[in-house]
Queue: 4 jobs
Job 1
Amino acid sequence: MTVKQVEFDQRVTRLNKKHAKLSRGYRATMRKDGLVVMKPQRVKSAVPAKVLLMCLFGLFAFKTFLMTSLGTSAYEFRVDSLAQGTTVEKAGAWVMQIDPVSGFLAAQIDRFTS
């Protein structure tokens, strides 16, 4: 290919990428020289980070509540029996296993309630 054909192909590729970005949303801005330029809008996540953090906090709070109400040995027994089940139950057992955060929180709560 000639140099001009390669430059043309690169320009077409660049324009196609820009068009794809603009098709997801754009905003018009004016440059200092007065030219109005369309800039692609950032795509927002379907689930905000705040919701994910609240779910994670709720999971730790639930695990801590179960460990303090059942006791650590009974909680481990139930998680171990859950791990013997189906694939979904094994996934639940993996999520519900004692982790450092919930273990520490349960120990602190036990210290205050005892």
Note: The longest helix spans residues 49-70.
Job 2
Amino acid sequence: MQKDSVRLGLRKNFLIALGANLPSEAGTPLQTLQAALAALAREGYRIEKVSRFYATPCFPAGFGPNYCNACAMVSGPADPASMLAALHRVEAQFGRERERRWGSRTLDLDLLAAGELVMPDEATQTQWREIAQEKQTAMTPPELILPHPRLQDRAFVLVPLCEIAANWRHPILRLTAQELCDALPEEAHAEVVPM
């Protein structure tokens, strides 16, 4: 079905998170995120909305310099695998090396959601969403998981996401982005500072 939608030229809105905490050939982390959005547009995706840019502490704490984070809504071919491949191509253009999970990086582009699509299925998404935090740094899903299994835990994602898609509803948790954000501790919100 997804391959047919690509063949027929159907388009879908995707929510993505952007982050960087090391300079790239484009400049500072902020300049890198701006350049990455332009590169994604050259990949054929239309940038529909972009949040403000935020300074946020490195996650987990102590793993490197502070980050610049944002979220964007982009539209493009309705196949999430194609969207993920485009995100990885853009990351590579800015020197992203996938050597260590949650390490410092020149660019991190995460596919957060494709509407209310659940991939690969509800049981697998729930398994990865509920994985213990101590296992998160060592384990990586072998396939694309949508919605992103950690988005409900991260103020650095939810605060900017609420600027562009506050009413997006998590298809399993049945809560909006705004409700997920409001459920986070106040100290988590305080760490996400507009630039």
Note: The beta strands are 11-20, 46-50, 54-56, 67-77, 108-113, 193-194.
Job 3
Amino acid sequence: MQHLLNPPDPVSKNRSCDFSDTGLPPGSVCLFAAFAPDGILPIFTRFYLKNILNCGFILHLVLSGETPADKETIVFCKKNNIHVWQRPNGGMDFGAWRFLLQKNVAAQAPYILLANDSVFGPFQPLADVLKQARAYALPAWGLVASRLVTPHLQSWFVGLSQQTLQTAPVQRVFSLPFEHMSRNEIIWHGELGLSVALQEAGIPLQAAWSDLQSPLARFLPTNPMHTHWYSLAVSGQVPFIKRELLRNNSFAISNLHQWPEVIPPACGFNPQWVTDSFCKNESRPVPAATTAKGRTLYNLISTADGLRWKVGHLKRFIR
């Protein structure tokens, strides 16, 4: 059953952010998709949500799963004025975002952020990242743009203006029945399809980090959240690590044990949260099988990426 745990308020009660300082238009909305089969919102996801609130967003959270939200989750959301929706799991993130768009929670929002719980972080204030990138001034913006398969914004963090959302190609994407699609179909029609739709509408794919113009990526495209995980996180440019990467490491990346190095002690994110999550038997899709060639390529690029960052940082320190 789909139901609302605390009803929406037309005006955000969040007052932790000065809109004139961040550039975020008042009334902007974040649609956040979380997979919660046990009805529990993990502490690292709560940390992420509080960072989103500190940017000034009105936050709508979708918990996908059959078990109702537990008491701690409900208390946390009420305390932070988060509007919580529950729905059966189906359609993954695009199914959850489509569900909220059909509820018209973003109909009057000048800016819409699509995000999900597939990452650990942020490891620096999210408001600073978005402000420095002038993300809110762009018609479409993501944290990562990749050439893998086809040029696209990785959908785990994408911001759209209301005008962009209302373009016919983008509207067609969010009219698709994601809840009846397989995981691969959702990737093709949702994540990749959204970026194809943006380009069809004449909207460029802009991001905090992009390999769209990289000569190497034209010939050897990879998932940068795997191959460049170290420099992206430690630089603060994309201050997140994908949960799937640490949980499965399907490409057997050899330097992944260095992940605690990218989390600054003063950022507020506790590395123990990551360790504790590994102890739980998370019900997640099994990653696609990788080849020996792919594992070798990902290892070479990831190792070079980490070394390049460390050498560059050492040179700056010596100077």
Note: The chain is about 40% helix and 15% strand.
Job 4
Amino acid sequence: MNEQRIRWDDLQIVWAIADTGTLSGAGRRLGISHATVFRRLTDMEERLGVALFERSRTGYSPSPAGEDLAAVANRVETDIVAAERRLAGKDLKLSGSIRVTTTDTLFTGLLAPIFSDFRSNYPEISLEVVISNQIHSLSKREADIAIRPTRNPPETLIGRRVGDIALAVYGQRVKWQTERRPLSITDLSEQPWVGPDVHMGDTTLEKWMSEGGRAAQCHYRVDTMHGMQVAARGGSGITVLPCYLGDADPQLVRLSEPVPALTTELWMLTHPDLRHVTRIRRFMDEVGERLRRT
């Protein structure tokens, strides 16, 4: 094999198939059809004179040669992303794009008006907002900045704690408006609850729900805070919500004091290579200050 026979596009094909195990999965990752993936893989194997994958009914398993090329692709991709970050670090202008990842509740409950003001103040900066409850990799440039509740921010990232997110118990206003509040958690434990589904990934909230008999009263589970909010709004049970979300909902009423065990730190994080980028620094300073005041 010589360097003329292997291109970066070839390495991406091998890496995608090895990582997903199927041609269709590789095609979805690369944004091409599975037929194109098959054709390019076949062409590559013919040029190199070696089988890169073993085919079976369950998918594609890399041969030793395929594993070697997939490892090379991983290293090359890491080098390319690192080079992009270093080049981005030389950007001293208040222009360009910022890709921010955050959760759906934070965006609708806190960030949307703050982002709107930032765009008005810096019209030459484009915001790309990834609203997801899944963690996106800042190391691979899936996002430039993460604004997320976390009790353990990754040590590989830098940033600042911009505040704490308090959570309390909420119920349908028309049902609870005549009750004297706040009520104790013990008084509320025997009520029907709307709780987090395991796929939501909030282990602290799951553990709290399992205490005091609350889990036994929870027969309705949802995998997002917004879903829990809507279910409680409809009278399906009481639920735990961030106070910035529950207090702003006119159809809900806060039933308890904030629960100390559920308080979560709110962090703004970025990759160390981006800390000197002017637009990144300005965004973190101004948006972080707004969040601290909020």
Note: The chain is about 40% helix and 20% strand.
